[in-house]
Amino acid sequence: MKLYGSLTSPYVRKARILIREKHLPCEFVVADAWAADSPVPALNPLGKVPVLVRDDDSVLFDSPVIVEYLDALKAPTQLPAAGEARWDMLRWEALADGLLDAVVTRLLESRRPAAQQSADNIRRQEEKITRSIEYTAQHLSQGAWLMSDRFTLADLVMAVALEYTDFRYPHDWRGRHPRLGQWLAGISARPAFVETRPPGMEKK
Fold this sequence. Notes:
It is a single chain. With 204 residues, the protein is α+β, with helices and mostly antiparallel strands. 52% of the residues lie in helices and 7% in strands. It has 2 domains: 2-73, 3-Layer(aba) Sandwich (Glutaredoxin), CATH 3.40.30.10; 84-190, Glutathione S-transferase Yfyf (Class Pi), Chain A, domain 2 (Up-down Bundle), CATH 1.20.1050. It contains 8 helices and 4 strands. It has a 4-stranded mixed beta sheet, with helices on one face. Strand 1 (2-5), helix 1 (10-21) and strand 2 (27-30) form a beta-alpha-beta unit. The two termini are 33 Å apart. Residues 82-204 form the GST C-terminal domain. Residues 1-78 form the GST N-terminal domain.
């Protein structure tokens, strides 16, 4: 298999972490989706990363699809097949992806020329980020993991989202939610997280 993506994309990083956690044989191909000679548009008509080329040369794209496929390749699976546990897991995944979307949208808006920036849009994204972090803190379990008694996809995706928030929108959310900060510190110390940390991301 080959995974195409950038070093800084949090959506790509989710797949890279899962590959390392499950010790799956997969080549990582650094690819800039915006480059004129990028291979990405030929693989994914949406021109987005990550893209996974499977061993039979078929292609999967969009991080939730890729993550679920990778998870199914090797036990133990981190995404339950059915029941309430699956819906709980998918809710965490949706929240984490929504948090990432808000951080990315805020970042892109803030990079526009000052005269073209929308203060209202930036404010809306920051409100989404605040509410997402508050929800996570309120629903944090008493143990080391968000769900179950072991590391799962919920921990993976939410930790990636919070680390990316630190990377692209650094602010003192830990002051309001210290226990969530402690939880993230434990997840961030896992080798798969350390090995995939983007260039320039400072460890908090």
